[in-house]
């Protein structure tokens, strides 16, 4: 297998460059009739042999995505840079959604039966209670609207969260090792900004969070998939991939995983931290669903086992505490923290101080902690309703012990693309599994989120969806 970068790849390097170029065209960075970089220039940028780039360009030309001008170079074809069609419900085809490879494009579709949003039904949140805390914050901090937060985040909030993490998750960290960001997506963006360059290899779970892959692809990273199962990872596979690819990082969502709901066991977490130290691969632990468990609390975060600074821990509260506040805490050691603070300063110079103060008093209140227990019960009921409606369909899934999603395999004869199109006409939206797969091959899978609609709408929507599936079959 061809390799000119010193690391083997899961598929030929020229095809990875092909995907890198195609993705940039699809994002509109290179438009119809734009001249592409020279073979020599792109080879130097990506640190590969010129022949590798030539093979990628030749394949793009054979596929009609680029054309050649004699003695001038390669140019984007008229149809080589597709864009999403207008967002008008049924007119959005599955192909358009997959070409964009962006979860947000699907989630923006208006739908009565919304199974693509891994968010909590606003009716399950203590909204009146939150409004009381908004008033309280203005009483406690009358000048809060007249000043910025520090770039790293409100000191009082960071101190409180560091104590919370120590008491509940056994994370030994100080407030100086926490950064407050505007949601987990910004945190992932900042990590990618400071760590990734074109054609850097990174490990990602297969499947994984689609928007994270979009961020990494925009940086030009090469995604190397690691299979996740109900039992966790194959550690021999992980070590082999680390040894061969020398990845910059391993992006993971190991607790009530998105989209599968799987949770990596504690014994693997300790060993994976040891592998990260051995192969100098940062573990980026995205942990938005930790508090959403149905029986026993999940294992400790990877960060609890880290003594040498090889884990970046992203703890988002946007899914279930107060989505509108967009509060996320990133934990890591110095000097990485210093680089993240610099990137945060360039991004927005600090998360809203008002939002941080509201969150501080709201999250630490006994009332909210009691509400979390009730929320877990409500979400478990939602999950069981979805499972009841899927019983007898022949669809397959592993019941998750927490989180907000079911990861479902459809029968081979039922095509996800056909079901997606038919569902849009019935105002039903879900996430095709293909966009959660770095290889784009999980064409029989779907992610169904049971958290965003109320129980009556959930049951009715699932009945409509399964009835549609029977009509298509």
Automatic annotation (TrEMBL):
GO terms for molecular function: DNA binding; DNA-binding transcription factor activity; pyridoxal phosphate binding; transaminase activity. Pfam families: Aminotran_1_2 (PF00155), GntR (PF00392). PANTHER family: HTH-TYPE TRANSCRIPTIONAL REGULATORY PROTEIN GABR, TRANSCRIPTIONAL REGULATORY PROTEIN. PROSITE patterns: HTH_GNTR (PS50949). This is GntR family transcriptional regulator. It comes from the Bacteria. Coiled coil: none annotated. It comes from Paenibacillus albidus. InterPro entries: Aminotransferase_I/II_large, HTH_trans_reg/aminotransferase, PyrdxlP-dep_Trfase, PyrdxlP-dep_Trfase_major, PyrdxlP-dep_Trfase_small, Tscrpt_reg_HTH_GntR, WH-like_DNA-bd_sf, WH_DNA-bd_sf. CDD domains: AAT_like, WHTH_GntR. Keywords: Aminotransferase, DNA-binding, Pyridoxal phosphate, Transcription, Transcription regulation, Transferase. Transmembrane segments: none annotated. Its cofactor is pyridoxal 5'-phosphate. Residues 11-79 form the HTH gntR-type domain. In the C-terminal section; belongs to the class-I pyridoxal-phosphate-dependent aminotransferase family.
């Amino acid at each position: 297998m061809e390799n000119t970068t010193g690391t083997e790849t899961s598929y030929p390097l020229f095809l990875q460059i092909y995907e890198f170029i195609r993705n940039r065209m699809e994002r509109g960075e290179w438009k119809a009739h734009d001249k592409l970089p020279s073979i020599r220039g792109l080879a130097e940028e990506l640190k590969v042999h010129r022949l590798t780039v030539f093979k990628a360009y030749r394949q793009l030309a054979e596929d009609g995505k680029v054309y050649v001008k004699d003695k001038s170079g390669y140019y984007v074809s008229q149809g080589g840079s597709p864009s999403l069609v207008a967002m008008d419900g049924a007119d959005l085809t599955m192909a358009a959604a997959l070409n964009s490879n962006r979860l947000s494009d699907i989630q923006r579709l208006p739908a009565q039966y919304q199974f693509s949003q891994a968010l909590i039904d606003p009716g399950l949140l203590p909204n009146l209670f939150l409004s009381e805390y908004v008033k309280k914050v203005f009483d406690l901090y009358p000048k809060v609207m007249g000043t910025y937060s520090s770039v790293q985040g409100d000191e009082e909030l960071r101190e409180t969260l560091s104590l919370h993490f120590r008491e509940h998750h056994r994370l030994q960290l100080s407030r100086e090792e926490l950064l407050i960001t505007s949601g987990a997506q910004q945190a992932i963006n900042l990590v990618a900004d400071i760590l990734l360059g074109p054609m850097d290899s990174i490990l990602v779970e297969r499947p994984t969070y689609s928007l994270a892959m979009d961020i990494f692809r925009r940086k030009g990273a090469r995604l190397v998939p690691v299979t996740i199962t109900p039992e966790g990872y194959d550690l021999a596979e992980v070590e082999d991939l680390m040894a061969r690819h020398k990845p910059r990082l391993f992006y993971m969502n190991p607790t009530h995983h998105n989209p599968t709901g799987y949770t990596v066991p504690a014994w693997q977490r300790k060993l994976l931290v040891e592998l990260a130290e051995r192969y100098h691969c940062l573990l980026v632990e995205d942990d938005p669903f930790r508090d959403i468990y149905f029986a026993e609390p999940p294992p400790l975060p990877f960060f609890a086992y880290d003594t040498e600074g090889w884990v970046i821990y992203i703890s988002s509260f946007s899914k279930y505490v107060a989505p509108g506040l967009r509060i996320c805490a990133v934990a890591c050691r110095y000097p990485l923290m210093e680089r993240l603070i610099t990137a945060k300063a360039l991004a927005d110079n600090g998360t809203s101080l008002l939002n941080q103060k509201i969150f501080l008093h709201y999250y630490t209140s006994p009332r909210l902690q009691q509400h979390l227990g009730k929320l877990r019960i409500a979400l478990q009921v939602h999950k069981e309703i979805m499972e009841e409606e899927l019983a007898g369909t022949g669809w397959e899934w592993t019941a998750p012990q927490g989180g907000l999603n079911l990861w479902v395999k459809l029968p081979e004869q039922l095509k996800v693309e056909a079901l997606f199109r038919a569902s849009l006409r019935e105002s039903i939206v879900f996430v095709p599994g293909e966009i959660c797969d770095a290889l784009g091959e999980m064409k029989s899978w779907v992610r169904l989120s049971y958290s965003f609609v109320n129980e009556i709408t959930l049951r009715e929507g699932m009945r409509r969806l399964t009835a549609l599936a029977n009509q298509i079959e």
